[in-house]
Amino acid sequence: MRDREIGPIGTLARIVAGAAAITLPIALEGIGWWDVPALAVAPLVAAGLAMLITSVLGSVHGLAGCALIAALFAAAFAVGEATPAHGDVVFWGFFGASMLLAAVRGDGGCEVLAFPNAITGREDQIGCILFSPIDAAEARLDRRPEACR
Question: Which residues 6+ apart lie within 8 Å of 24 measured at CB?
């Protein structure tokens, strides 16, 4: 069993954000049968885009994370335009489910890699604009001397 990369604050942040990302778009638009296969394919798209982006940008973590989110948004928008699927429900549903999986697994870094990492058994990471600062602050708190806790 591997160690958790995030602490309780990072875990809670991912649970709250993930639940909101899933429920709000569905509450506003509903979910259609076209959304389900689009959501099922999203982890494969995320894995492919992550490999492409990190091969081009290397270890520029913040930029790679932003580029991956932008690429996934563009892909979800294209699916929404080309099919009866709700692109925003697919986009936010995938992100929300990824955040919840990252919370359960204790994954740090960008949550969009939670499903590809779970499927492949890898631990690929790129930076995450939202959660990396929370995780870094929590890690600093965990390194305090025992007397300060």
Answer: 92
Please state the domain count of the chain: 1
91, part of any domain? yes
pLDDT in tens, 55-76: 887 655 567 778 888 999 999 9
Return the biggest CA–CA distance within the chain. Answer: 59
Residue 104, domain member (yes or no): yes
pLDDT digits 0-9 by tens, 28-52: 999 999 999 999 999 888 888 888 8
Q: What's the domain range around 57?
A: 8-143
- Mutual angle of helices 8-29 and 87-105, in 10-degree steps: 160
